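I'd like us to work through together how a protein chain folds, taking it slowly. To get us started, please write out a protein record for me. Go ahead whenever you are ready, and we will take it from there:
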Amino acid sequence: MKNYIIVLSIFISSLSAQTFTGIVTDSSGDPLQYVFVRHGENLSTTNENGGFTTKIDSENEIVFSLIGYEKLIVDLENNTDKVFVLKNENIELQSVDVYGSTKKYLNNTTNSNALSKFSKGGSINQIPSIEIRTGGGYAGVSSASFDGGFARHTKVLYNEVDLTDAMNGQVDLSIFPSFALQSVNYRLNSGTRFGSGSIDGSININNNVNSNKIIYGTGDFGFNQYGATYNIRTDRGSRNIVFGKTEYDGNYEFLNTTTEEREKRENNYLDQFFLSVGREFIINEKTLINFSSLMMENIRGVSGSTTFPSNLATRTDEFDLNDFSVVRFINKGTLKLSMNRSKNNQVYDDPNESFPVLSEHDLTTSRFGLNLKQKFSKSVAYELDLIEKSERVDSTDLAKREIDTTSMAVNVTYVDLEKNFKILPSLRYDSQPGNKETTYNLGLEAVDQFSNEKMGFDFNFDFGTSFQFPTMNDLFWPDGLYSGGNPDLKPEESDYVALKVTSNSFLGKISLSTSLKNYDNLIVWQPDESFKYIPINISSAERNSMNLTFLKSFEKVEMQVAYNKYESKDKELDKDLLYVPNSSMSLMLSYNLNKKTSLAMHYKKTGERILQYESSFSDEVIGPALSLLSIAATRSILSMDGKSILDATITIDNALDQEYESTLGYPEPGRSINLTLEYII
C-alpha cells in the first residue's frame, strides 16, 4: 500500500491542466445531473449536485446537452457566470422560463474554506441546525444530528450510498479525515427519500474534486496527516481520487470533574487510512457507466470514558465499499441501474486481566437499485425508486444474522413557472420480515413571492411521516445474564410539520424556520424486574425547534449567523430529552484579506442540556453551556503565472482552550494548532 501511495503521488505531481467549473440547473432551479458538457474533444457530465469540471483549451465554446432539454452553447470568452440554465424542449425561445431569481443551487450545501478542509468537523460544522457529539480528540467516535435529535435519526451517505452500521444504526464520522468532509450536502426530513434512519435528515458527503493537490499537515497531540486529491478528464470520462493517511498520538491532560484534579488521558491514538476512487465512462450520449470505491482503515486506542475500559483496549475498523451503476438516457428522462456492496470488519480487544473482552463483527451489505426519472411535461416530473437490500452480520456476539429490506418510493414534482411555486408529494413503502412501514411527505415551495426590485420572499412547507427500523443489536443481542435483544420490537415512528420563510434582499438572505415533531415507539434499553437490560418500545417524545439564519456575501467577506431554539420532552419521564440543548448559536466568517491571504472563523455556543437522568443509583447531570471557537488563516507562499501553487494554512481548534465534554465521561482536548501545506498542481 505504501508503494502504491508513493507511485500515485508521483503520478499526481506530473499532471497539469486548466479547468473550468460551474453548475447546471433546470428551469425550476433544481440541479441537473448527467448533463453532457462538451468542450472541443472533451466530454464530461454533471454530478448529482449539477456541478461539473472540464478541461479547457484553445476552444472558446462550451456546449451543454441533455435529452429533453434545449442545447445550450456558451462563449467562454464573454461569459462571467458559473450557473447555466437548460430549458425544456419545445418551448418558444422568446419565453422567459426561469423559476425565480434565487440561486436555488446554494440551498442545503456547505461552502469550501480552510476550516471546511482542516478543522476537526470539516464543513459539517457549517450546517446551521447541526449538533455534533464527540468522544475525545481525533480518535474519539463522533456523530451528528439535526436540531439536537438522536444520531441514529440522521442518515450519513457517501456519494449517495448509505453508510449506516446495521448493528447500531449510526455512522462514526471520525472514520473520515477532515479534508474528506469539505463537500457536504444535507436535506431535512428526508424519510421518503432515504427511508429508515433519516427521520430528522440526511448528510451526503461528496468526493467531488475540482483540483489536484498534495496535502501535508502536522500539529499538536502528535497529529500528522498527508493526502492528495486527483482529478483527470479524458475525452470520454473522468477519474477522481481522494486519499489520506492520519496519525495521532492523542494523549492530553484534562480536568476530572469528579476528583477536581488534572489527569492524563492515555491510549487515545489513531492510525487512519482513507482512499476514495470514482470513475465515469461515457459510452455514448445515451449511456454512462459509473464505478466508485471507498476504502477506510482505522486503528485506534480506546480510551473510552474516564472510568471504562482499561488503557489496553484497542479497536480496528476496516471498511470497503464498491458501487457500480449504468445510466441510460430515455425520452425526457433517465433509467439508472445500480449495485453496491460493502464489507465492514470491526474488532474490539481489551486484554485487561480483570475483565478481558474480545469482540469481532463482520458486516456485509448488498444493495440493488432501479431508478427512473421522467418528465411528463415542462411542469410535471416523477421519480421512481425500487431497492432491494440485504444486511448480514457474523459476530462473536450476534452469531450469523441476516435482514432483507424491500423499498419502493415515488416522488412527483409539479412546477408552476409563472407563479413560481412547486408541489412535491412523495410516498414510500419499506418492508422487513415482521415489520412494514408506509411513509409520505407533501412539500410546497414558492420563490420570489411578493417580490420587487429590492426584496423577495421564499416559502417552504413540509409535513409527513418517517421511521427507523430496529437495529440488529436491538433485535438479536444474545440473551444473557445482564442484557438481551427483543425480536418483537416495532419501528420507531415520527410525524412532523415544518415551515421555512426566506427573505432575499440587499440586506442578505434571512431565513426563519420552525418544525414540530412527535415520536412514538422509541426504542429504549432499560432494566426489567431482575435488572436485566432489554430494548422495548416504551418512550414517546416531542421536539420543537426554531432556527434563524442570516447569510450575507460582501466583496471579500461571507458571513453566516444561526440561532437555534429547542423545546423537547420525553413524555414518559416528563423531562427534556438527553443531550438536547435549550439553545445554540453559531457564527461563520470567511474573509479574503487580499489575493494571497484568507481567514476563516467558526464560533459555536451550545446551551445547557441534560447529560444523565436521575435514577436510584445516579444523580442528574446537567452539561454547562460551552463555547467553541475555530480559526484558520491561509497564505499563498508560492505562485506561478499569477496562480498560487503552494498554500500554508494554520488551523486552531478550540481556540478558547475550553474544558468541555460533549458526551458525558469523554473529556475533549484543549487548544490544538495545526499547520497544513497544500501543493496545487
Summary: The chain has two domains: 2-106, 114-680. The longest strand covers residues 533-553. Residues 1-17, 91-98, 101-105 have pLDDT under 50 and may be disordered. Residues 2-106 form a domain with the Immunoglobulin-like fold (CATH 2.60.40.1120).
